[in-house]
Specification:
Elements (H helix, E strand, L loop, with lengths): L2 H5 L5 E4 L2 E4 L11 E8 L8 E8 L2 E6 L9 E4 L3 E5 L1 E6 L10 H10 L2 E6 L7 H8 L6 E9 L14 E3 L3 H11 L6 E5 L16 H13 L3 E5 L3 H9 L4 E2 L10 H10 L2 E2 L3 H4 L12 H22 L19 H12 L4 H7 L2 H6 L17 E5 L12 E6 L2 E4 L17 E2 L3 E3 L15 E2 L9 E8 L5 E8 L8 E6 L8 E2 L5 E8 L1 E9 L2 E9 L4 E6 L4 E2 L15 E8 L6 E11 L1
Parallel strand pairs: 3-6, 3-7, 8-9, 9-10, 10-11, 10-12, 12-13, 13-14, 14-15, 19-25
Antiparallel strand pairs: 1-2, 3-4, 4-5, 7-16, 16-17, 17-18, 20-32, 21-24, 22-23, 23-32, 24-31, 26-29, 26-32, 27-28, 27-31, 28-30
Helix pairs in contact: 4-5, 6-7, 10-11
Length: 596
């Protein structure tokens, strides 16, 4: 039945001595409605806030207005004295750390508590999109758009992880090829790291030329995928706009914006997400010493504030993004802080609210589905105390939050069990991890092997490939030239499930067995939801069978080490890695990796 048909059954609601009285009813078997009554509705269409009632059924808004009445049997929420707004958007977040999925429920809860109902996650490898989407169905969570990553060799975004996480492209043909390779993963969007300026604080990365970026955007648009860019300078902002990028996802901040840059961005229809929250020099809340670095940060932030105001005044679509997940930029509350900073930049509270609702929805191509409070739209809503169109700080006074018409935060909400766990339930795993015999290049567990070298601009150069093993099928070969830095590393990771999201239960086994040859010592690494475990192994020129019992593993030192005892039921990855001196070479070959 259409929206109009549902609307005809909506009948009376009125107040008497503070009590909601209902009449009328819905057809048998129809989903129970929710009525939010007496709120001041900021619908993000451009209309002034007004007193209205909103009725929701089956995840959608079916009626809005001062004379709308609730159906009999509806769940009625008395919202007098409160403001009802569309759920907020954040078009630029990183659900970090990328290799550790444990924090996903906590991040989801942080966004929901802030009234954020749609986010873009820029941090995941495409192999993880499908299992993450499946996991999110069990959580109270905002809608998460998964964004594939593309950069240049030596570019920002290509300075950690490998090409399975961030595609490296250096020519128009290369860009088109890699966009097509991403399509089967069904990315919601693509982020292109196009600007290598590192804010004057460190050596610059490489940048993407206009021809390559134009081809990337064109190929993405042919596949109905919008493109956002990491762009932070005026020159690169003009290049992004001329390439028809959909959203510039950072502040242009190397200097005050000029008329030419404003005109090019406006003419292209490119939206602008300044991510002021990540650049705020005072975000720590602590008094900062007056140093050259501090003065530089303050100056750049001044450019960022002035530039977003100039673009807004020129009619460019300003949208809300934060870069949350980066240092000092926490999930959820940073979205609210971004609106406050937009007001600090000179936008009105109403303009800041529009940036976080309908403007963002329009830039992402989601405005037909959500982003305003109108009949037919998805019922993603936030109820707050106060009047944020007058005082933007009132966005922090969250009362209730709805996603798809379901209460996910506030009085009466009970979180699903999955929100209380730091991982998906473990699954059983077969003994064979990888014998390197699959012709499609994937592991025996149907996972994509990952290169695991050090990060930074100067990275270890390595080649991992399947080679012929004389008389015994195939084996994995790793050859590397170590970077000129302290403690360079090279390695290969074999995920135990796609995207290293779903843990496996290996308690039926005693350890890991494999065959190895090389020159020197290496590490067997096992990544778990509780951190990384390691055992040192030695190899010579001849093949040797190696058995590593789980009891021989020790906690790896450093980042990602984790805490707690070995459990055996939370394994994510098995890897082989090594380190040599700066500029030295490393090689190893491995075969027949199994649990035993």
């Amino acid at each position: 039945m259409g929206i109009a048909g549902r609307g005809r059954r909506i009948v009376g609601v009125w107040f008497a001595v503070g009590v909601v009285l209902l009449s009328g009813g819905a057809s048998a078997g129809e989903p129970r409605a929710t009525a939010i009554v007496g709120a001041t509705v900021f619908d993000a269409t451009g209309a002034a806030p007004r007193l209205a009632n909103v009725v929701i059924r089956d995840g959608r808004i079916v009626a809005v207005g001062p004379k709308v009445r609730a159906p009999r049997g509806a769940v009625v929420i008395d919202a007098r004295g409160k403001a009802l707004l569309p759920g907020f958007f954040d078009v630029h977040t990183h659900w970090t750390p990328g290799g550790d999925p444990r924090i996903t429920p906590a991040i989801a809860s942080a966004y929901i508590a802030a009234g954020v109902t749609t986010v873009n996650d820029f941090h995941q490898q495409p192999e993880s999109f499908a299992p993450r989407r499946r996991w999110l169905t069990s959580l109270a969570t905002p809608h998460v758009n998964f964004v594939a990553r593309m950069s240049t060799p030596g570019g920002h975004g290509a300075d950690w992880a490998d090409e399975a996480t961030t595609k490296w492209v250096s020519s128009p043909q290369d860009a088109r090829t890699e966009v097509r390779a991403l399509v089967p993963y069904k990315p919601d969007f693509i982020k292109a790291f196009t600007d290598g300026w590192r804010y004057g604080a460190s050596a610059d990365n490489t940048s993407m030329d206009q021809g390559t970026l134009t081809a990337l955007v064109d190929e993405a648009h042919k596949n109905d995928i919008k493109v956002l860019t990491h762009t932070v300078t005026l020159e690169r902002g003009r290049i992004a706009a001329r390439a028809k990028v959909d959203i510039i996802a950072h502040s242009l901040q190397d200097q005050p914006i000029d008329a030419e840059t404003v005109a090019v961005i406006k003419a292209a229809g490119t939206a602008y997400a300044p991510t002021l929250a990540v650049y705020d020099p005072d975000k720590s809340g602590r008094e900062q010493p007056d140093t050259p670095t501090r003065r530089q940060s303050v100056a750049k932030f001044g450019h960022a504030l002035g530039n977003v105001k100039a673009l807004s005044d020129a009619g460019v679509n300003v949208v809300l993004g934060t870069d949350a997940g980066m240092p000092g930029t926490p999930h959820g509350v940073s979205t609210l802080r971004e609106m406050e900073l937009l007001v600090k930049a000179g936008l009105t509270p109403t303009q800041a609210l529009m940036a976080g609702t309908s403007n963002a929805a329009r830039a992402l191509g989601e405005i037909a589905d959500r982003g305003t409070i109108e009949p037919g739209k998805r019922a993603d809503l936030v109820l707050v105390a106060g009047s944020p169109w007058t005082d933007i700080a009132d966005v922090r006074r969250t009362d209730r939050v709805f996603v798809d018409g379901k209460l996910v935060h506030g009085p009466g909400f009970k979180a699903p069990p999955a929100n209380g766990h730091d991982a998906m339930p473990s699954i059983e795993v077969a003994p064979l991890i990888d014998d390197f015999e699959r012709p499609d290049g994937r592991s025996s567990l149907d996972t994509l092997r990952l290169n695991d070298m050090d990060g930074g601009i100067d990275r270890t150069v390595q080649v991992a490939q399947v080679i012929d093993r004389a008389g015994s099928g195939h084996a994995l070969s790793l050859a590397a030239r170590m970077a000129a830095k302290d403690d360079p590393t090279a390695g290969v990771i074999i995920p135990l499930t796609r995207g290293s999201v779903e843990p496996v239960d290996a308690r039926a086994f005693k350890g890991v067995r494999f065959e190895l040859r090389g020159a020197g010592t290496y590490n067997l690494d096992i990544n778990t939801t509780g951190g990384k475990w390691r055992a040192e192994v030695a190899a010579g020129a001849d093949w040797t069978a190696v058995d590593i019992p789980f009891s021989a593993l020790k906690r790896a030192a450093g980042r990602g080490a984790g805490t707690g005892p070995w459990s055996g039921d939370n394994l994510l990855e098995v890897g082989f890695a090594g380190s040599r001196g700066p500029g030295e070479k490393l090689w190893l070959e491995v075969d027949n990796v199994t649990f035993n």
